[in-house]
Amino acid sequence: MKPPVAIIGGSGISNIIKGQRLTVGTPYGPTPPLTVGELEGKKVIFIPRHGENHSVPPHKVNYRANIHGLKKLGVERIIATNAVGAIDQRLTPGDIVIPNDLVDFTRSRHNTFYEGPPVTHIDVSEPYCPTLRGVLTSANGSSGHESVEQVVMACTEGPRYETPAEIRMLRTVGCGIVGMTGAPEVFLARELELCYASICFISNMAAGLQNSLSAQEVEDRGRDTTRILNDIIAEAVREIPDRRTCPCAKALASAQLSKPERARGGGKIA
Ligand code: HPA
Predict the structure, then answer these.
(1) Whose Cα sits closest to atom 6 in ligand 1?
(2) pTM (2 decimals)?
(3) In terms of pLDDT, which residue wins out, 69 or 11?
(4) Where are the alpha helices (DSSP H) in 73-154?
(5) Residue 120: strand pairing partners
(6) What is the pLDDT of residues 191-227, one digit of tens each?
(7) Which atom of ligand 1 lies at the shortest distance from residue 218's CA?
(8) What is the average pLDDT across 155-164?
(9) Roughly how many angstroms between the first and final C-alpha of the chain, as a whole number?
(10) For residue 264, pLDDT beyond 50
(11) Is the sign of the CA dihedral 33, 102, 11, 16 positive or negative?
(12) How many Å lie between the centroid of ligand 1 and the Cα of residue 156?
């Protein structure tokens, strides 16, 4: 059987897979209960990012366990769903966006698998997998939605929403959408050479662009959008090519310093 595709469910996104439920142990702790099933004839794993019943806030999600657990199950591709606020006023609640870049404003999260040797610096010149972004963008297009291209996501620490001044700053640095769960998830996936792309739904206009924000509104908008998102994800899963030709699969090759050549004479430096 081909390697499974994983779907990470964010706020308001319910499980679209029926199948076997299991929890995976990792060096970082257990994953939340996952569902292993099928979609479009392919093996698919659904993982609820915030745990069962949405009990884990964004800054406390065990991102390392979630990504490591998926790797352990043989996953090579991850489609993440994220609820986001719109900073770019061309976007409105209900819109769907496939971001192409991200700015990480988080502060308290475990953001790497490489805490010691080998010292590892992964390249994130293209943080999202180009192949997965491509299939998600065309699936979004064929569902009748126009995609705003080149949208940068800001990932804030949360769990509070932003102030209007913070949103003005994020706009100034080029961010079009804002959420709390994009990082370090995308970077951890790259560190394990997994393809990762995000499909975001706009649940609200960001702070200062509408009167006030409510968590219920985000949840409700997720529920309204779930059916459309599910259709787009199903089409994307069907269209994912079998072979990986993107750079994600070889991310570590250029990320680690090569070991110093052992000098002749016992390695003593003259
Ligand atoms: N800000 C941060 N995270 C969010 C928002 C927002 O406006 N909407 C949904 N998640």
Answers:
(1) 85
(2) 0.93
(3) 69
(4) 130-142
(5) 256
(6) 999 999 999 999 999 999 988 888 888 788 777 788 8
(7) 9
(8) 97
(9) 55
(10) no
(11) negative
(12) 9
Which protein residue has the closest C-alpha to ligand 1 atom 2? 179
The reply to whether ligand 1 has any atom less than 6 angstroms from the CB of 178 is yes
CA dist 125 and 237 (Å) reads 25
- The type of residue at 255 is A
* Cα 216 to middle of ligand 1, angstroms: 12
Q: Hunting for tokens 């004839």 — which residue is that?
A: 41
**φ, ψ (nearest 5 deg) of residue 255:** -100, -15
- pLDDT given at position 270: 35
What residues form DSSP beta bridges with 198?
80
Question: Tokens 């994983």 — which residue?
Answer: 6
Ligand 1 near 202 CB (within 6 A): no
Q: Write the Ramachandran bin of 29: left for phi over 0, alpha for psi from -120 to 50, otherwise beta.
A: left
CATH superfamily membership of 5-257: Nucleoside phosphorylase domain (3.40.50.1580)
Where in the chain are the domains? 5-257
